[in-house]
Amino acid sequence: MTQSQLDHAISTCTGESLQTIRRRGFRARPVELESEDLVLALDCPFCRRPVVLDSSPGVPLPVVAECDRCDVYFEYAAEELYAADSRAVARGNVIEG
Questions:
Q1: 3-state secondary structure 12-81
Q2: 37 & 21 share domain
Q3: Are residues 51 and 97 in the same domain?
Q4: What is the pLDDT of residues 28-40, one digit of tens each?
């Protein structure tokens, strides 16, 4: 989880503004992960939960992502992608290219 993701998650849960959360100084702790523990993910713009993309070698990334929770497809920008711990995200949102 990145610092930005932590700030957004706390903001969503508490209803406080991002500025307030950042002022209070919550900090994400770095965790050592093996490469097989990582998946390519982005946050759903509606529920803000992670959506995992299929990033298998030789498979192009999908043009749109699908959030199973919200039952929607959405476009995304490359800047929205991040590496996530596969154990920490739901497996039901894998999109195949």
A1: HHHCCCHHHHHHHCCCCCCCCCCHHHEEEEEECCCCCCEEEECCCCCCCCCCEEEECCCCEEEECCHHHC
A2: no
A3: yes
A4: 766 665 667 788 8
